[in-house]
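Table S4 entry, Probable enoyl-CoA hydratase, mitochondrial.
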Amino acid sequence: MANIGRMLASRVAGQLVRNVATNQQQQQANLLRFYSSAPKSYEFIKAELVGEKKNVALITLNRPKALNALCNGLIAEVNDALDRYEADDSVGAIVFTGSEKAFAAGADIKEMQPNTYAKCINTDFLANWTRVAKAQKPIIAAVNGYALGGGCEFAMMCDIIYAGDKARFGQPEIALGTIPGAGGTQRTTRAMGKSKAMEMCLTGNMITAEEAERSGLVSKVFPADKLVEEAIKLGEKISTFSPLIVRLCKEAVNSSYEMSLNEGLRFERRHFHATFSTKDRLEGMTAFVEKRAPKFSNE
């Protein structure tokens, strides 16, 4: 009887532990949902959910007196907002924009000017500026006005760039006695080719939105007052698809920067094969065959 009593007590204790663990997991999930969706006030950016279904995050760079120059505080807030929106399952895409005068006119030179080589090395200066490029959700840059230096590099970290018709892009670091440090020499070359990249980086000259579109840096150009609206529409369209498949597709496209053609084709094919293990691939094809709209579950 004593053994039976101990067994029963052990089972009850085990069930209590499991219940506590389940409750803790549920509380953590609730906290995560609250953290990701609760409004938050920032100093250097504005962040809000937009679109008809509130499934697109709009992050506006907001240092108007400095033409949205990128300072450490602004980058920290951008990274925080990205963490929140990436954790929010209701958000399917993220749009970055600035003002009609400036998307971002560069890095904050006053903040950067006192730096030394030793400080740059010891603090791994600019390493935390690449969070945008590492995002799993689609990122759209809606560029009005100036996107220069770090501002141009920031836009190029995004997946898609839409530009207002008065936008200007450039890498003017050469005039400051330095070079681009957040991807300007690398992403311009991949987007526009060596000759155009060399011209931009070695002269500091700006290019227009139309030139940027012809060169492949920008996807589309819109009137300045319609730009953000069009970027949000794009985010809404992307958000209608399976978030899981969108992530796989984005990863496959980005892999082309890092791999040879044969390696990239193999990577793409394996990702394509992997979609056949998902419920959303089955739902998408079944809906097509049945001539109805798909209902994706992110599984």
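The first helix runs from residue 2 to 37.
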